[in-house]
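#struct-help
A.M.: can someone run this one for me? Single chain, 344 residues.
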Amino acid sequence: MPVPSTVQQPVADSVLANVAERAASIDRGDVQTDVALAELGQNGAFDAAAQGDVAGVTALLETLARECFSTAFSSWGHTMSILFHRAGGMEVPEELLDGSVAGVSAMAPAFKWASELGDIPVEAVADGDSVVLNGKIAWASNLFPNAIVMMPVRFEDGTLTIARVRIGTEGLTVKHSAPLMALNGTASGSLSLTDVRILASDVTGVPLKEFLAKVRPGFLLAQSAFCIGLGARSLDEAALSVEKPGPNALFRDRLDGLRETEQSLRNEHASLLEKVTSPVRLLQLRLDAAHFVSDATKLEATLAGGRGYLADTDTTRRVREAAFLPVQSPTEGHLMWEIQRQSV
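D.P.: on it. Structure tokens below:
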């Protein structure tokens, strides 16, 4: 399918074709998304993140989500890790930029902490030129060999900040998840840290509250972008069914209504890229975008008829991908909670 005219295509047609071709295999877990990250990196797809260009990052993620949400999701975690390096004043490793090593956003505990919904589960102790880490990260993705993980840590004196850890470091254990409903090729699972020793220079030193203030807009706008991309693709597929003579034509009003929702989301996204006037607007956009995907994929499946209930079709894959969004951090409940907190 063509990229929407409102989005400048951030990757070559040949690369995008490969992303689409791998979508089903990655969804099943037969192929892993590190293959896609490497190809994207070699073709300059992560240059926007390296430059701190959030608009460029969101354009990339929306475009990828139209073809393979797993690839968009892994690319989101990867580009966030690059933006986290920038926010923490760290030089971005070349291997992240060229995609030869995956970047991991293990930041869910940080955002929960900011919403007073949890503590930071990784303890840090300074030891000369090193820092020793102990704790657990309940969920993260892109947990490929040698991946670079950005995570929040808590020092004994109460200091909260961000640390960088490489998978493969002694004491760091990866436990991959059981089979998932979708996104099985994203190397998702948990991390356990037992006396993991890193260099003191692998700790940003930026206070966590300040760090989150820097990265939260891009974090939520990027997630909203891949929601819009996935939903828009489902509406394109639904439109093909509505245009055919017969009962499916009766769904045109519903399709038109969702197209209006899509445009409203795009307008709000563009406005927030220009200037964030309220944290609530960011949170509401992310929540509304996830709801839009649910409605759009449902319409696509409805119009597909019996084919929409077959297990191994692009339509049902998109339905399963959409089911992930209410539980991705920040979850639907977390978003609603934070919107309420911020609105008081």
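A.M.: thanks! The beta strands are 103-105, 122-127, 130-140, 148-155, 160-166, 172-176, 189-199.
D.P.: also worth noting: Residues 170 and 196 are 6 Å apart (CA to CA).
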